[in-house]
Amino acid sequence: MGKPGKLALPSHESTIGKFLTQSGTFKDGDLLVNKDGLRTVSQSEEGEAPPIEPLDHNQLSLDDLDAIKVIGKGSSGIVQLVRHKWTGQFFALKVIQLNIQENIRRQIAQELKISLSTQCQYVVACCQCFYVNGVISIVLEYMDGGSLSDFLKTVKAIPEPYLDAICKQVLKGLMYLHHEKRIIHRDLKPSNILINHMGEVKISDFGVSAIIASSSAQRDTFTGTYNYMAPERISGQKHGYMSDIWSLGLVILELATGEFPYPRRESFYELLEAVVEHPPPSAPSDQFTEEFCSFVSACMQKKALDRSSAQILLNHPFLSLYDDLNIDLASYFTTAGSPLATFNTSNRYDDR
């Protein structure tokens, strides 16, 4: 393997000048990001108000990070595996080229604000954010097992006892987002649930999440991944936290069977009809336990008010069914999945 390269930061400063302060800081509302990191200031403050301390007190610097390889690509940027020069620790660096489109800029600002305020062991940690030469760089905790989507491609299906252990962690993450942070994730799917060699399962990617400011906890915007959308979302109606629970039901059923629960559709409108007009998918009772079938059903009720909350689902009988087995997700992820690029390995990395 060649010598790790420096991070490539293209220059498009002129295209986003309207979003910059005179000092070259990216600004959106109360959010400020520059080469030294991310901070927020109160909207009531005037002028150059003292910033809140950056999220990471170790003062990570972009200059201290060596790029190893690209590990993901999205509509707004790439994700690189990077290594800290002095500690050897790996991070995932999300590199986003700022776009002058208003909706893209607001999505990015939303993601940064949520990342700054979210600290939970069941949610991928944001270590720091930077803005340099037209690029927003978000330093994230590196999950060396990849996503559940990656893992499923290797194992084909995940047995119930392991799904039980995975579910517990995802539900604790959702409970934190819903009840403590008042956030609807709005894009929960296998590729946004990450795993590592320690058996940890964490929710990621808040690029289209929404902070709920009103007591009604409803949103009427339309973003996210169509396939995993609840009936009320895909039909364009207002939705709340329970839309994430529907998505969880689809995710768990897909992980259990190895196939997406709805047959492949040729168009969005066919999927819309299937989700809204047809009965919801269910777990085959001849292949799965009664408790698992009941759990999936509790998530996938057509009416949002009929679904169970994350807090209630944590007490569902399915999640205590295999307690006496002492399920070891760490062993399962490392032996059943692909070789992992862990924090403790040398320079071997699995091309994913």
TrEMBL record:
Segments crossing the lipid bilayer: none
InterPro entries noted in UniProt: Kinase-like_dom_sf, Prot_kinase_dom, Protein_kinase_ATP_BS, Ser/Thr_kinase_AS
UniProt cross-references to PROSITE patterns, sorted A to Z: PROTEIN_KINASE_ATP, PROTEIN_KINASE_DOM, PROTEIN_KINASE_ST
Domain annotation Protein kinase: ranges: 65-319
Gene Ontology process terms (BP): response to other organism
Coiled coil start-end: none
Enzyme Commission number: 2.7.12.2
Highest taxon in the source lineage: Eukaryota
Binding site for ATP: K94
Record-stated family: Belongs to the protein kinase superfamily. STE Ser/Thr protein kinase family. MAP kinase kinase subfamily.
UniProt protein name: mitogen-activated protein kinase kinase
Enzyme class: transferase
Organism: Oryza sativa subsp. indica (Rice)
Lineage: Eukaryota, Viridiplantae, Streptophyta, Embryophyta, Tracheophyta
GO MF term set: ATP binding; MAP kinase kinase activity; protein serine/threonine kinase activity
Keywords for the protein's UniProt record, in alphabetical order: ATP-binding, Kinase, Nucleotide-binding, Serine/threonine-protein kinase, Transferase
